[in-house]
Amino acid sequence: MRILVIKLKQIGDVLLAEPALRFLKKIYPKAHLTVLVNDCAIPVLANASYIDRLLGYKRNLKKLSLFQRIKGEIEFSQLFAKEKYDMILSFSSGDRSAIYTLLSKGKYKVGWYSKKGLWGKNKFYDLLLKEPNTHAVLHDLFMVVKVTGIRPKEIKVNFYIPNEEIEKISKKLKTFGVTQHDKIILIHPVANWLFKCWRDDYMAEIINWLIEQGVKVILTAGKNKKELNRISQIMKNVRFKIINLAGQLNLIELAAVIWHSHLFFGVDTAPMHIAAALNKPVISLFGPTSPFHWGPWDNNQQVFFLKSPYKEKGFQTYGKHVVLQKDWACVPCEKDGCNKTKISRCLYEIKPKEVKKILEQKLN
Q1: Annotated domain spans of the chain
Q2: The dihedral of CA 187, 190, 191, 192: what is its sign?
Q3: Helix orientation angle between 251-260 and 163-174, rounded to the nearest 10 degrees
């Protein structure tokens, strides 16, 4: 049996689909499982031994000339179009997922019903399902359950880090004077979407306060200019020397640093989900996005299938994780900041003293 799963989403989305992929392989252990994701998300699943073939769509094709793009698209589609899959599950509802499903000519094709995008794409599938309104971890599991008729007994998100990467980062941290006796908090204060970011001066205040408590702070961020500019602004108000690894790590290295940390503090972004998958306590700031769909998942908590462990908004605790969010009427709005300013007032109104109170509880 040959199975193709398509998940053309961001890094965090792909990570939260991992339980569904693993459960599918558990149901069909002898099946050859191919997973197709955006190339940026390849590291999320690169070390998952149950995946037989992992394909990455190169999103930078969109930046090439028309001729080069067409050539690249054809070359990529040839990687899977002639594989004669017995079953295709499209975890993404976008047009590209539908086109790839059609090109693959699978015997049994399953996707989400969609009113948006390419006209007629719903006809590409043999089974159409209505997307469930629930947490992202349960979203893709729902499709697997509907197709197989089997429910998982436990739901855990795994991120796979090679031992050599953990050891490499251990040696790197030792060069900064970090020992096994230190209390380490990893702070990831930025996201590619700036409307998810807290005030820079507030973040600096938290960093200064943590160092005064004797905590070793590791600061991380992605490599794009927007994130690194925000890190520079934060560092202007940091009075102490910290371990600033912003822009210096690939995704696996970042995960290894999180593995060595005791707690994660930051905003709603992929590293938050990685920390939760590695069973680290997470304290996360949420603004216009909903924890009902995107809150950090606790692997040690029992969950009723299809029931999100989070409320739609507001301050809440789930297992070892804490979400800080305003319970305002306009939250969650899912918008690019208030009046498209990329500044979310609901997020900016969360005060450092509220964060310190939670951190103090976790540190004791």
Answers
A1: 2-148, 163-363
A2: negative
A3: 70
Structure letter (DSSP) for residue 113: -
Same-fold call for 2-148 versus 163-363 = yes
Per-residue three-class SS string for 62-111: HHCCHHHHHHHHHHHHCCCCCCCCCEEEECCCCHHHHHHHHHHCCCEEEE
- Cβ proximity of 71 and 53 under 8 Å: no
What tokens were used for 358? 């939670």
Query: What pLDDT is stored for residue 11 in this prediction?
Result: 97
CATH superfamily of 2-148: Glycogen Phosphorylase B; (3.40.50.2000)
Q: Tokens at residue 271, please? A: 């590293």
CA distance 217 to 261: 9
Q: For residue 200, what pLDDT is reported?
A: 97
Strand ranges across the sheet with 87-90: 53-57, 32-38, 2-7, 87-90, 108-112, 127-129
Ranges of residues in the chain with a pLDDT under 70 are: none
Cα separation, 161 vs 43, whole angstroms: 9
270: which 2 tokens?
A: 């992929």
Supply the pLDDT for residue 66: 76
For 107-139, how does the pLDDT look when each residue is reduced to its tens digit (9 = 90+)? 999 999 999 988 999 999 999 999 999 999 999
Alpha carbon distance 265, 281 (integer Å): 9
Q: What is the pLDDT of residue 63?
A: 75
- The pLDDT, as a whole number, for residue 266 is 97
Task: For residue 241, give the DSSP letter.
Answer: -
CATH assignment of 163-363?
A: 3.40.50.2000
